[in-house]
């Protein structure tokens, strides 16, 4: 059964299966985000932001920069293997039952901003941070010769990376970057992020 809350009114459909519209939108946004992350300019911007964060570590600055230069390309390579379909199933937007509150206007820009706000809320949740770190640690186990070093790096820099991801989403209009919004929507992003 699919239950969707629109403007505080529950509308039920006896539809077993996935909500095709919501699933398609998720897959479309994920595809655009993955394309954006795959762009050289985006990767350069992310690495530059991480290098700036490294400069705040003073005595560990050079070690941090070396780690960023080594692991950032691996991160982008890993991101390139993500499939929009699998991602949307993982976040429960494509599946048997979906319960979600949709904005009054279901345009792409509003939905994108709502997703960014939801991601920011999750990034601020310590439980989510632990889940991300656990996933990274599991990934480290797959790197045979560097598992211990990888785990040490996750413990050392994982929280910093998550904090920078949060700052990146707060200071960059991702929805405009992936063309879900026109440039005139920047004010909407700022106001929605301020409410988060």
Automatic annotation (TrEMBL):
Domain of life: Eukaryota
GO CC terms of this entry: extracellular region
GO terms classed as biological process: lipid metabolic process
Localization: Secreted, Extracellular space
Annotated ranges, domain Saposin B-type: 19-98, 105-185
Keywords: Aspartyl protease, Disulfide bond, Glycoprotein, Hydrolase, Protease, Repeat, Secreted, Signal, Zymogen
Keyword S-adenosyl-L-methionine set for record: no
Keyword set includes Hydrolase: yes
Molecular function terms, GO-annotated: aspartic-type endopeptidase activity
Role description: Pulmonary surfactant-associated proteins promote alveolar stability by lowering the surface tension at the air-liquid interface in the peripheral air spaces. SP-B increases the collapse pressure of palmitic acid to nearly 70 millinewtons per meter.
Protein name in UniProt: Pulmonary surfactant-associated protein B
């Amino acid at each position: 059964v699919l239950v969707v809350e629109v403007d505080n009114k529950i509308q039920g459909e006896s539809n077993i299966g996935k909500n095709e519209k919501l699933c398609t939108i998720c897959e479309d946004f994920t595809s655009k985000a993955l394309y954006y992350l795959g762009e050289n300019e985006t990767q350069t911007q992310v690495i530059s932001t991480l290098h700036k964060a490294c400069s705040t570590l003073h005595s560990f600055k050079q070690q941090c920069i070396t780690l960023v230069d080594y692991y950032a390309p691996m991160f982008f390579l890993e991101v390139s293997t993500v499939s929009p379909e699998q991602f949307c199933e993982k976040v429960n937007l494509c599946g048997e039952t979906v319960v979600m509150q949709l904005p009054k206007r279901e345009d792409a820009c509003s939905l994108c901003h709502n997703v960014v706000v939801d991601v920011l809320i999750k990034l601020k949740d310590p439980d989510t941070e632990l889940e991300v770190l656990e996933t990274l640690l599991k990934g480290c186990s797959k790197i045979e010769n560097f598992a211990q070093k990888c785990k040490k790096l996750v413990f050392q820099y994982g929280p910093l990376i998550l904090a920078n991801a949060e700052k990146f989403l707060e200071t960059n209009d991702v929805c405009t970057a992936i063309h879900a919004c026109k440039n005139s929507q920047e004010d909407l992003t700022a106001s929605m992020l301020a409410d988060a």
